[in-house]
Amino acid sequence: MSNATESIPEVERIVTIFGGAKCSEVDPEYEQARRVGELLADSGFTICTGGYLGVMEAASRGAHERGGRVLGIVMNQFKAEPNRYLTDKVATPHFYERLQRLITRSVGFIAVRGGMGTVTELSLVWNKIQTGVIGPRPLVLLGACWPPIVREWQKHLAVSQEDVSALDFAETPEEAVAIINEKSRGVTL
Known about the structure:
By secondary structure, this protein is an alpha/beta fold. The chain has helices spanning 28-42, 55-65, 95-104, 116-130, 146-156, 161-164, 173-183; strands at 2-3, 14-18, 46-49, 70-75, 88-92, 106-112, 139-142, 168-170. The protein contains 7 helices and 8 strands. It has an 8-stranded parallel beta sheet with strand order 1-5-4-3-2-6-7-8, sandwiched between helices. It is globular, with a radius of gyration of 15 Å.
């Protein structure tokens, strides 16, 4: 694994996958993320994750096993070792820089079930798309957990239907990657 501080080629098509660190191989979200990693690698994308366990490991593993490039954006503050499926790692000093690096070079995003870290990542990307800080790009919420969560946000927060129109929902990894393939074509960074 290399430390790829700034060695990401400009033409590289990166998709970032968000999801929880607490799942294991027996959990459905692990298998979903692994399949997403496989499909994205097969489609020629580099995948990017937070670099640690759970969904991050699963997506990294899927892509790595298909010969894909796997970037892990890790944090110096964490004591944990990154997962073994990364081909390159970028170390960051704090959460904000980590989040920025997960977002700014990506042509699309897939969120798999996770915890509050996943919600934070999803919310930041969603807000950046809504406010035009980053140009439009696919933000796919994968799995049955997301539609009821988004409906509750609409019910209890200031989240409009127009806001929700920036999201795509997918039930399977195949649907999620098909959305990424279709909607990331015109994305410029």
